[in-house]
Design goal:
By secondary structure, the chain is an alpha/beta fold. Helix content is 30%, strand content 21%. β4, α3 and β5 form a beta-alpha-beta unit.
């Protein structure tokens, strides 16, 4: 069934009273520090971005999604908007999106990000079917935006001042450009800070229109205690109307934003996050990865009879399950594209998140370690697929299975995700 994207209430104000959204709080870490942001956990008393009652794992989020749809069947959109940034938590974010797409194929999937860490994951975002992405861009002049961010983190390096603003903007523009090439609908959020960037709205909207952005959302700063902007005056309604009018010369404007919590749920005008807080907390106490969610085994095979492909060389995995006393191939899944370094193996753990093991003729130490950390047993063997499946499902060792002579993966492999030469 084709997804009806017109049911997204944030991008289509005409349906905001008919369809709702849920924000799944699976992304606690952030890679930048905004001077207006104060993230809070275990909080039910504030209604603003960055606030949530608890944090969920991807598996817990899937259980919560089921309960949300029972309580509010008008939910058409599942999004991740923090309480940190989705791509400071890529495994949790994309793992959640994978599970939702598999279990709720007609659900609209949505992400909201500062854009700093987005670019390396855009291909996977598009492959999963995330159709709407919001990027918060508070200006296109680093001399202005340097006053909005305390720091920006790029891995282990922390930048401040104009360097931070320049780096963040470069990452945002690169990501937006690729999102549009991938056919993703893009909204830009612009937080209006009086005396800082309020004179910069029209110029930013014009630039974003040139990049093909679909929607522009001017959001008035909500002064929050314990932040550097706590005493900045919130722009009034007249000011916001004027700024939106200026931006509307270039891009459609979102005028019905509710500045939602990271665990918002329900219709835009009738949020039920407080009501659902008990259910959310109950789901957060569930086992992170129940054994029942790993019924399959992934196999790297050229023809479907033998385990005879190197993990780095396979372009597709055969997914098998045990049915009574026999084995059945369920489907084939494409492997993540090579060449993305360690990100390829992290993406692989999400592709195989419901698999207890992966059988391959060989693999390097880097993917082996990453798979093990995610609870997927990496098995190197050669021979009949059925022999490997019997050993995995029975719990017996695989020492009797003949392996081909090991390549020098552990010695020379750089973990680039391209296989061994």
């Amino acid at each position: 069934m084709a997804i009806d994207y017109n049911r997204h209430p944030c991008f289509n104000p005409k349906v905001q009273g008919q369809f709702g959204r849920v924000h799944l709080p699976v992304a606690p870490k952030c890679n930048i520090k905004c001077n207006y942001c104060n993230r809070k956990y275990d909080c039910v008393n504030e209604s603003r971005p960055g606030v949530t009652s608890t944090i969920l794992s991807p598996e817990q989020a899937l259980v919560y999604m089921e309960k949300v749809l029972i309580a509010e069947p008008r939910i058409s959109v599942a999004g991740i908007a923090g309480p940190g940034d989705p791509f400071a938590n890529p495994d949790e974010t994309l793992g959640t999106m994978q599970l939702l797409r598999k279990n709720y194929p007609d659900l609209i999937l949505c992400l909201s990000t500062n854009g700093m860490g987005l670019y390396p994951y855009i291909d996977e975002v598009a492959d999963i079917g995330v159709s709407h992405v919001t990027v918060t861009v508070n200006g296109i002049d680093p001399q202005i935006t340097k006053n909005i961010y305390s720091w920006v983190s790029d891995g282990k390096i922390v930048y401040q001042g104009v360097q931070a603003a320049e780096l963040l903007l470069a990452r945002q523009l690169r990501a937006i450009e690729k999102l549009k090439k991938c056919g993703v609908t893009v909204k830009v959020n612009f937080i209006v800070v009086s005396g800082v960037n309020d004179h910069h709205v029209e110029e930013t909207a014009k630039f974003m229109a040139g990049m093909g952005v679909d929607l522009f959302n001017c959001m008035a700063l909500l002064p929050t205690e314990d932040t550097l902007f706590a005493n900045v005056v919130e722009p009034d309604k007249e000011t916001m109307a004027r700024l939106r009018g200026a931006g509307e010369k270039y891009l459609p404007q979102m005028r019905h934003c509710k500045r939602c919590r990271a665990d918002a749920v329900g219709l835009l005008g009738a949020d039920r996050s407080g009501e659902m807080a008990g259910c959310l907390n109950a789901c957060a106490s569930l086992p992170v990865r129940p054994a029942s969610e790993r019924p399959y085994v992934a196999v790297a095979s050229m023809e479907g009879m033998l385990v005879n492909q190197h993990l780095g060389e396979t372009t597709r995995f055969m997914i098998w399950e045990k049915v009574d006393d026999t084995f059945r191939m369920v489907e084939e899944r494409p492997a993540p594209m090579p060449g993305s370094g360690i990100g390829r193996w992290q993406a692989l753990t999400r592709v195989l998140s419901d698999c207890r093991a992966v059988l391959a003729s060989d693999m390097g130490d880097t993917p082996r370690e990453i798979l093990q950390k995610q609870g997927i047993e990496p098995v190197c063997m050669s021979g009949l697929i059925e022999m490997g499946l019997k050993a995995i499902y029975s719990g017996e060792g695989l020492s009797k299975l003949k392996r081909r002579e090991k390549k020098a993966c552990g010695t020379h492999c750089q973990g680039t995700g391209t296989g061994c030469g």
